[in-house]
């Protein structure tokens, strides 16, 4: 379970202050798959980075007693000069995984073939995304944080990702950001809506989606 | 759950290995360049100065005298400069929740310090072999001086990183402040060559104390007129406190 206690987060850029969270107290319960809804720029990705612990709040506390992934669908931590294999080994070492087993898994899942031994600055964006997904799926987390999975790869690879998620969901949970209602409905059973610095939790997915649609029309 | 310290040690280890690949990953010799490059450029300096017939300010080998100064100085300046930008240049890595700003600093510190340790060992071996220079009289003193200078570099680098975050112009300012240090750190001379009122001013520079400490260890009869180990260590501790406390205050707040 992930618990927010009076968490406040703002951004200040060139004198403009933007509040992402006004003192949020909330629980993301264990056993629930949560979809995060909100406008573009509402701060969904920042919320996800706070959940991951990749960013600190201005004040308040975030407690996690489960093993949470980094926000997936993002390859920003990869080094362009390093090969696919070396980048995979780096993440494996960091998370204390067996490096060779993990490289094998990623080679198999990402279907990058010989490109795995090339520097990833030679990869296309689709290839990088495959590598990033392969790497994150190789580690067993209790909770996977997914930021816009729909942007990844071609139809066949998407299908493969979906199957992988479904098998992961048997033992783990996900918290996901998606602009696609279809994806949210497929994987999530509750929703939360980030709107003007407030986060509202909805037990019913349908209710959350309805409110989100209403907000977007305003 | 495993201990925080084991996790952090693992993360730092992974970062050190990663850095060896990213720095020179696309070249034939890989990380060996990190050792060869500064070693060769120092060798060129030594050859130029020896060719124009400069006699050493102390001892019989100019190469040895120059190396004791310049390598100690470079250990500091490399650390202070690279650590300043270590966080910005690896910002993407902070998306991994396990990676903290301090890990980026420490992993880079470990790698640069080990690299310079290798450079120093290789370099002095060559000088002893070619120039018939003497062996270090008290190698343990040389090692302590090197460690103290590296900690000074870590403190200065961490402080620089904080200042750069608060004030992006700091990189330019630091360049202006650091450049004269090359001439103020006793690389070409011994402080006792100067009148005492100038020595008093030079003595404010903690790097000079590091160089003097290293030379006392190497030569045995060097008898520095300025060396104060407590002064160097105090400077290092203050910079470390400022740097790492500042890092705690300002971590992950500006993007």
TrEMBL record, chain A:
<comment type="similarity">
    <text>Belongs to the ABC transporter superfamily.</text>
</comment>
<dbReference type="InterPro" id="IPR003439">
    <property type="entry name" value="ABC_transporter-like_ATP-bd"/>
</dbReference>
<dbReference type="InterPro" id="IPR050683">
    <property type="entry name" value="Bact_Polysacc_Export_ATP-bd"/>
</dbReference>
<keyword id="KW-0547">Nucleotide-binding</keyword>
<dbReference type="GO" id="GO:0016020">
    <property type="term" value="C:membrane"/>
</dbReference>
<feature type="domain" description="ABC transporter">
    <location>
        <begin position="2"/>
        <end position="217"/>
    </location>
</feature>
<dbReference type="InterPro" id="IPR017871">
    <property type="entry name" value="ABC_transporter-like_CS"/>
</dbReference>
<dbReference type="GO" id="GO:0005524">
    <property type="term" value="F:ATP binding"/>
</dbReference>
<dbReference type="InterPro" id="IPR003593">
    <property type="entry name" value="AAA+_ATPase"/>
</dbReference>
<dbReference type="GO" id="GO:0140359">
    <property type="term" value="F:ABC-type transporter activity"/>
</dbReference>
<dbReference type="InterPro" id="IPR027417">
    <property type="entry name" value="P-loop_NTPase"/>
</dbReference>
<keyword id="KW-0067">ATP-binding</keyword>
<dbReference type="GO" id="GO:0016887">
    <property type="term" value="F:ATP hydrolysis activity"/>
</dbReference>
<keyword id="KW-0813">Transport</keyword>
<protein>
    <submittedName>
        <fullName>Polysialic acid transport ATP-binding protein KpsT</fullName>
    </submittedName>
</protein>
<dbReference type="Pfam" id="PF00005">
    <property type="entry name" value="ABC_tran"/>
</dbReference>
<dbReference type="InterPro" id="IPR015860">
    <property type="entry name" value="ABC_transpr_TagH-like"/>
</dbReference>
TrEMBL record, chain B:
<keyword id="KW-1133">Transmembrane helix</keyword>
<keyword id="KW-1003">Cell membrane</keyword>
<keyword id="KW-0762">Sugar transport</keyword>
<dbReference type="Pfam" id="PF01061">
    <property type="entry name" value="ABC2_membrane"/>
</dbReference>
<keyword id="KW-0972">Capsule biogenesis/degradation</keyword>
<dbReference type="InterPro" id="IPR013525">
    <property type="entry name" value="ABC2_TM"/>
</dbReference>
<feature type="transmembrane region" description="Helical">
    <location>
        <begin position="176"/>
        <end position="192"/>
    </location>
</feature>
<keyword id="KW-0472">Membrane</keyword>
<feature type="transmembrane region" description="Helical">
    <location>
        <begin position="109"/>
        <end position="130"/>
    </location>
</feature>
<dbReference type="InterPro" id="IPR000412">
    <property type="entry name" value="ABC_2_transport"/>
</dbReference>
<feature type="transmembrane region" description="Helical">
    <location>
        <begin position="231"/>
        <end position="250"/>
    </location>
</feature>
<dbReference type="GO" id="GO:0043190">
    <property type="term" value="C:ATP-binding cassette (ABC) transporter complex"/>
</dbReference>
<feature type="transmembrane region" description="Helical">
    <location>
        <begin position="145"/>
        <end position="164"/>
    </location>
</feature>
<dbReference type="GO" id="GO:0015774">
    <property type="term" value="P:polysaccharide transport"/>
</dbReference>
<comment type="similarity">
    <text>Belongs to the ABC-2 integral membrane protein family.</text>
</comment>
<keyword id="KW-0625">Polysaccharide transport</keyword>
<protein>
    <recommendedName>
        <fullName>Transport permease protein</fullName>
    </recommendedName>
</protein>
<keyword id="KW-0813">Transport</keyword>
<feature type="transmembrane region" description="Helical">
    <location>
        <begin position="31"/>
        <end position="52"/>
    </location>
</feature>
<feature type="domain" description="ABC transmembrane type-2">
    <location>
        <begin position="29"/>
        <end position="250"/>
    </location>
</feature>
<keyword id="KW-0812">Transmembrane</keyword>
<dbReference type="GO" id="GO:0140359">
    <property type="term" value="F:ABC-type transporter activity"/>
</dbReference>
């Amino acid at each position: 379970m992930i618990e927010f206690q009076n968490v406040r987060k703002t951004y200040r850029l060139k004198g403009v202050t933007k509040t992402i969270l006004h003192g949020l107290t909330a629980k993301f319960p264990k056993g629930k798959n949560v979809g995060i809804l909100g406008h573009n720029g509402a701060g969904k990705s920042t919320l996800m980075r706070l959940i991951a612990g990749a960013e600190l709040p201005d004040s308040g506390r975030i407690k996690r007693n489960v093993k949470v992934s980094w926000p997936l669908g993002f390859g920003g931590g990869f080094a362009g000069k390093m090969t696919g294999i070396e980048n995979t080994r780096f993440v494996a070492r960091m998370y204390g995984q067996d490096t060779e087993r993990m490289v094998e898994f990623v080679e198999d899942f990402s279907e990058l073939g010989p490109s795995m031994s090339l520097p990833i600055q030679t990869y296309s964006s689709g290839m990088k995304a495959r590598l990033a997904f392969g790497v994150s799926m190789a580690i067993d987390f209790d909770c996977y944080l997914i930021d816009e999975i729909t942007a990844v790869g071609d139809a066949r690879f998407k299908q493969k990702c979906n199957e992988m998620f479904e098998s992961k969901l048997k033992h783990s949970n996900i918290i996901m950001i998606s602009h696609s209602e279809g994806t949210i409905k497929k994987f999530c059973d509750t929703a939360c809506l980030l709107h003007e610095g407030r986060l509202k939790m909805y037990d019913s997915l349908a209710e959350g989606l309805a409110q989100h649609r209403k907000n977007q029309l305003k | 759950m495993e201990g925080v310290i084991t996790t952090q040690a693992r993360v730092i280890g992974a970062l050190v290995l990663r850095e060896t690949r990213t720095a020179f990953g696309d070249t034939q010799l890989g990380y060996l360049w990190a050792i060869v490059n500064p070693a060769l450029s120092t060798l060129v300096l030594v050859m130029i100065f020896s060719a124009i017939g400069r006699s050493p300010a102390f001892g019989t080998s100019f190469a040895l005298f120059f190396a004791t100064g310049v390598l100690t100085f470079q250990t500091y300046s490399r650390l202070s400069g690279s650590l300043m930008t270590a966080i910005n240049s690896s910002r993407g890595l902070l998306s991994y929740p396990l990676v903290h700003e301090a890990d980026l600093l420490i992993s880079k510190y470990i790698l640069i310090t080990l690299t310079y340790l290798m450079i120093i060992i290789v370099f002095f071996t060559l000088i002893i072999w070619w120039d018939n220079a003497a062996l270090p009289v008290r190698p343990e003193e040389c090692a302590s001086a090197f460690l103290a200078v590296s900690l000074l570099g870590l403190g200065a680098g961490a402080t620089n990183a904080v200042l750069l975050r608060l004030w992006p112009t700091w990189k330019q300012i630091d360049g202006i402040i650091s450049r004269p240090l090359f001439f103020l750190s006793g690389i070409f001379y011994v402080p006792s060559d100067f009148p005492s009122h100038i020595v008093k001013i030079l003595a404010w520079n903690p790097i000079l104390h590091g160089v003097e400490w290293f030379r006392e260890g190497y030569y045995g009869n060097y008898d520095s007129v300025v060396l104060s180990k407590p002064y160097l260590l105090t400077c290092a501790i203050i910079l470390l406190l400022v740097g790492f406390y500042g890092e705690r205050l300002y971590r992950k707040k500006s993007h």
